[in-house]
Amino acid sequence: MPPPSPLRACIAMHGGGSFAMNQPAPTRAQQRQIRKRQGWRRLLALVAAVAVPAMAAPGEWAGFSDDIATADAPGVKPMPFEKAGFSFPGSAFYYMEDTPQVVADMPGSDLAIFDISGTGSLDQAEELAASRVGAAARAFSLSGSSLSQGRAIDCLAKAVYYEAASEAIGGQRAVAQVVLNRVAHPSYPNSVCGVVFQGSERTTGCQFSFTCDGSMRRVPSVAGMARARMVARDALNGMVYRPVGLATHYHTVWIYPYWAPSLDHIGTIGAHRFYRWKGSAGTAGAFSSRYAGVEPANAPKPRVANLPENDPADPLALARAFEEAQARAQTEAARTGLPAGTTGVPSTGRPVAPPPVYTPQVEARGGDAQFQAEDVPSDNGVKPEYANSGRWIRQPGQ
After folding, report:
1. CA 137 to CA 245: how far, in whole Å?
2. What local confidence, expressed as pLDDT, does residue 39 receive?
3. Is pLDDT at 18 greater than 70 in this prediction?
4. Distance (Å, rounded) from C-alpha 354 to C-alpha 338?
């Protein structure tokens, strides 16, 4: 008897039917039918292995056993997805904490990590950071028309997004606070869009690099911009992020600008280091500008050619200009004996503004005097015909 062919031996070994060794070899059609039946068997076995555990009730799921201590061990508090009846496929991701982390480098302390809930309240580490930076900014009061308010929100949200889109909520609030600190300082424009887009007409020297380096050509993500707009609204509605204090400058941790040693380092939040001015320029009294309530266009300014290379908003130059202005005001106050910044103090003790400037025609008619109501008849006396006004002509009953 001749030995079996390799094909017949393979079919016999794998249960490919009831062919006897002396039967003729299966045809091609029969071989396809055999392979098809074997494929269906394997598929049904796989479906059963997956479906049977999934259809079991959560309370009947058996725990995994290994050598690692389980949640039932003494002193171990089980997480929600480890409790019977609370589990479902993917429950570990559902219960996972989603609170972002902010890293703060506080002067005189080790690196601290603290949570930001996004609710506006500060946790213990943030309170500690805020207590070390000194005075905090005043709450911002948004005013003006609905158009200006919309522009302010849009400009501040762009600054938050393009400067700190990858930051946690604390880092984004810190950037927004720096913008509003500048709005309140006389060295900068007194509008949100004016501060954000200051210097954007230059190829270099813009105050926020995203306004002149082409970053705005990148379309922002919907979720990221929505978060930035939330941060902007909170700040414009009066939320003050105290851990940055009166900071007016910051830079990323990967660079070290020339002006950094000349300013006071407040701390590091996320990927940014924050600074405030030294001297009187960085004190709370210096932040005295009133918000204009009128916002310019919420977009970069048109580029201007042949601008000087020196930066007009150089922080060191601004600090010197502020100190010089303060010195001049103090000298003038000492010379006149009046509070700095006033032009005259009448007997009421309230400062008055200088008279307005009129055209020559108005000046020829008397200037400002004709608008002072000095020619109104005196009210010290009453004409005789009106002396008895309001009295009875004849008393009732007479």
Report:
1. 6
2. 78
3. no
4. 14
pLDDT at 363 (0 to 100): 74
The answer to whether 271 touches 167, Cβ cutoff 8 Å, is yes
pLDDT at 110: 34
CA angle 169, 102, 176 (to 5 degrees): 40
**Residue 18 phi, psi dihedral angles, 5° rounding:** -110, 30
- Ordered strands of the 101-105 beta sheet: 112-115, 101-105, 264-269, 272-276, 249-252
- Does residue 167 have a pLDDT over 70? yes
CA distance 385 to 16: 133
Enter the pTM of the model.
0.56
With tokens 């003050």, the residue in question is 240
Relative orientation angle of helices 169-183 and 222-236, to the nearest 10 degrees: 50
SS (H, E, C) 259-284: CHHHCEEEEEECCEEEEECCHHHHCH
Strand partners, 252: 272
**What pLDDT digit, counting tens, does each position of 116-142 carry?**
444 556 766 777 777 788 889 999 999
Residue 353: count other Cβ atoms within 10 Å of its Cβ: 8
As given in the structure block, the two tokens for residue 286 are 């210096």
Concatenating the DSSP letter of every residue in 42-99 gives HHHHHHHHHHHHHTS-GGGPPPP--SS--TTSTT-PPPGGGSTTS--TTHHHHSS---
Tokens representing residue 99 in the block = 């609170």
For tokens 């200088």, name the residue.
354
